[in-house]
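Protein Record: Sequence and Backbone Structure Tokens
======================================================
Tokens: labelled as protein backbone structure tokens, with as many entries as the chain has residues.
Task: work out the structure tokens from the sequence, keeping to the layout shown below.
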Amino acid sequence: MLPEVIARMNAQPPTAPDVAAMRRQYHLGALREADMPADPIALFTAWFRAAVSAPIIDPSAMSLATAGTDGRPLVRSVLLKNYDDRGFVFYTNLESRKARQLKENPHAALLFPWLLLERQVIVTGAVERLATVDAVKYFLSRPRDSQLSAWASQQSAPISSRQVLELEWAALKRKFAAGAVPMPDFWGGFRVVPATIEFWQGGPDRLHDRIHYTRDSAQGWQITRLAP
């Protein structure tokens, strides 16, 4: 059904929609301080389970915002691959733009846009490289073709055509036809260690709920309500 919808959209004349008139009421939930757990990871898990159960495409997708020494931010979607009390984990090419920026400025923000549930979660914090042993463990669990893609793509580097990428992938498939595909030394993982976690729940008449957790090394997580 989705390809048919996209085809119909592409067939429509390229007239700009009336963006200013787009609005709707939010009514699916509310956040009250008395109901908030002391640990935001517990609430994140409850919301993540709800997102997985809902008909949300790629509920583990998150927007990752980074900025290098030039101060110019970049944002892109990546997939969450693990999380716990230590932070939120993703993997990438270590020579990509995001990895270069994180080397220059090891801080990031994450956004989980679960808009079907009228919810968002924003995480900010320092970023650390995962140990190689952890990256290898995850890499070996990936589908074989995804492992080959990690080798084939010089992520963020200009290429002359898609054919170049496909030919490189095919060549690597032949090269690693026998045995396991090793992890490239230019591939690895990062963990965003949360300093703040904000939960946003849409509310009627734009009176949204925003509950902001801030990590305090002495007192644990502190909870604050923010104006919408």
Summary: Strands lie at 61-67, 73-79, 82-84, 87-93, 107-114, 119-129, 187-201, 209-216, 220-226. The chain has a mean pLDDT of 92.
